[in-house]
Sequence to fold (317 residues):
Amino acid sequence: MHIALITPVPAQSRQGNRVTAVRWSRLLRALGHRVTIAQQYDGTPYDLMLALHALKSFAAIACFHRLYPERPLLVALTGTDLYGDIHTSTAAQQALEYATRLILLQPKGIEELAAHLHAKVRVIYQSVPRPTFHPAKAKHTFDVCVLGHLRPVKDPWRTALASRLLPSTSRVRVRHVGKALSDDMARRAQAEMADNTRYHWFGELPRWQALRVLARSHVLVLSSLTEGGANVVSEALALGVPVIASRIAGSVGLLGDDYPGYFAVEDTQSLARVLQRAEEDAVFYQQLHTCCTRLASLVCPAREQDTWARLLQELTS
Fold:
């Protein structure tokens, strides 16, 4: 098949939706399909459309549905779709109706959808190749990775603020990788580095460098307010890095209800307590590590490719 993969994120971006689009294009090509990635739809008679983001890709979704109503139309729902737009935007709601299938990145997302849409849902876990080499972690510091662009939905300062509450004996060092999406965010990151010796902001790095920072860290902190299913969690699971996450649906859907490494959303003291426990309590740290190791099979590339193969077979049989 010739597949149109629509994403609102430009080619040069390192945002999660673009990473997802590129990975899916590779998987689909490996299955023998032709894939064209685009930000807009030009009316080409593709055999199938796969659109990331119900609202931001709505123009493409609506046009393809109007021109080729009998052809498969897949809509992948992001965090801003699930926990925002589909509850307030008539365009996003219409995209759900047009879709042949709705792709979720974690199973709890179905709770945000009306019951009549549930039969359309398919869950595809984002995969990451497991490395053959694991770099050594620092012995004299407890490195905490924050991997995400500086924007409000990521609650980007929570880990830096929590590090300020740790005892003077703490060895925590926060290593933050991500692009500042405004001048104010960049200034705040610079000011935090100047005032907080435990915090270092790297800015935006090429993905391979960002993954190296993650691999060398003792834990990943994901402090987001909402997520559709964060790719960085998949990366941490593949790299064997334990996760500490805000207790939001998008993370619970990936890590499970009983995962021990949650903290309350926007609660600096709650995060500080979990960080201190991870640093000081070897049994707790091993518990986090064991849980993440058990979940690593979810993010195996072969599993994701097989899920895509079965979905496409289902649509074309």
User: Anything to note?
Assistant: The longest strand covers residues 142-147. The chain has a mean pLDDT of 94.
